[in-house]
Write a structure and sequence with these properties.
This protein is mostly helical and 395 residues long. The chain contains 21 helices and two strands. A two-stranded antiparallel sheet has the order 1-2. β1 and β2 form a beta hairpin. α8 crosses α9. The longest helix has 17 residues.
Length: 395
């Protein structure tokens, strides 16, 4: 794509020359547009950890109360009356939107256990007429945050992984007095499905979604999301669900392929596309082979390919034309074709691709349905002439 054809991710004007250095996929007119858009873009950029403070900042930008996990971490859900919750949220919104406190700074205040002191210091640093009614209310009700827990980071000698596991451990209701180092070993010994759910919880509590190098990217439906908005929405739906159910209920629903029913039982809206419904209906043991294909292609794009290749993956890829005897240049042609199909510009429907495979018309699907021009024609026809293997509808 010519450089001047890029669209600014914030104002949507074309000719955006400034590219995000973190992901190299988003473009902006200038520093101003990039700064304004950062609170949205950080959730897909993967250039740093996303915390609940970022979710709080995004809620402040929209003017809506944050979802349950963030509300719990910042004392909003336990503030008391609806009025108190709105007022406390207003205090945070004033910090983030009005005073320009960055989410990483707010997160640090909370983790260091001096949130109240720093809130007061920030507001006292501006003239009285700029502090507003929210801060006046806060001075009368600061006891709401007085039970702020001591940050896990203050425990000496913890790795980042141990810290995150301990946070999840406490969130799911396990004993808080369990040493974080012991928690890590206990997590390692969890049954397989329990471990997958624990890993998902850990990412959700961090405010991020898994990438394709993680098995949970596929088993929990992130593979079926088309675009940043869908990924963010699915993550938010899961965060609302884990705030409404027990860990045991979640694991049981996941194991029985009934997560969709759990959403309904807990009154949590799942804004899912047919593709996401398809994945969640088949988790965790059996999936349509189009999802492992998409995972492989995504991992190839991010250079994670070697992390996911095993005998099962090799079998799953074989029904899409890949084989050990295929020359390297033809392997690249096949990867490029599927990349194009799953990519942002085409945004092809994986279920339609899988349907074409089952009908034995992959080449016709790409050339007639998708209107792809495939050359050399003979090579593509040969590579895409894949017979339907017995039992290959689900792998």
């Amino acid at each position: 794509m010519p450089e001047n054809a890029h669209e600014c991710a914030f104002c949507e004007r074309t000719g955006a020359p400034r590219r995000c250095e973190g992901c190299e996929r988003a473009y902006y007119c200038d520093y101003v547009c990039q700064t304004h858009h950062w609170i949205y873009h950080i959730f897909s950029c993967n250039s740093g950890d996303v915390t609940t403070a970022h979710h709080l900042a995004l809620a402040a930008r929209h003017g809506d109360l944050p979802e349950p996990v963030t509300s719990a971490e910042y004392g909003i859900s336990t503030a008391g009356s609806p009025h108190a919750r709105i007022m406390l949220f207003g205090v945070y919104a004033g910090l983030l939107e009005g005073l320009g406190v960055k989410p990483v700074i707010l997160h640090r205040w909370k983790e260091d256990g001096n949130l109240i002191e720093n809130i007061k210091r920030a507001y006292e640093g501006v003239s009285e007429e700029l502090r507003g009614d929210y801060y006046a209310w806060f001075l009368r009700n600061q006891h709401i945050l007085s039970t702020e827990h001591v940050a896990v980071q203050e425990k000496e000698g913890l790795t980042v992984a141990q810290e995150r596991a301990y946070r999840t451990w406490c969130f799911i209701g396990r004993p808080r007095d369990t040493p974080p180092q012991i928690v890590s070993s206990l997590v390692q010994s969890l049954p397989y499905n329990d471990g997958l759910c624990f890993e998902l919880y850990t990412m959700l509590l961090r405010g991020v979604f898994p990438g394709p190098q993680f098995p949970i990217w596929m088993t929990f439906g992130f593979c079926a999301c088309q675009g940043e908005e869908a990924l963010t929405r699915l993550r938010s739906d899961y965060r609302a669900l884990i705030a409404a159910c027990t860990f045991e209920e979640f694991v049981r629903a996941f194991t029985n392929a009934s997560l969709i029913r759990l959403f309904e039982e807990k009154g949590v809206t799942l804004c899912a596309s047919p593709n996401i419904i398809d994945v969640l209906s088949g988790s965790p043991d059996r999936q349509k082979p189009v999802w492992p294909l998409k995972r492989y292609v995504e991992c190839e794009y991010y250079n994670f390919k070697n992390k996911i290749i095993d005998s099962r993956t090799t079998k799953q890829l074989s029904i899409w034309g890949f084989s050990s005897v295929l020359p390297p240049e033809e392997q690249k042609m096949l990867v490029s074709l599927y990349k194009r199909f799953f990519g942002f510009e085409t945004n092809g429907d994986p279920l339609q691709l899988d349907k074409a495979r089952r009908a034995g018309r992959l080449y016709e699907f790409f050339t007639e349905d998708m209107l792809f021009i495939l050359k050399p024609k003979k090579i593509y026809k040969r590579m895409l002439k894949v017979s339907k293997a017995p039992g290959s509808d689900l792998l």
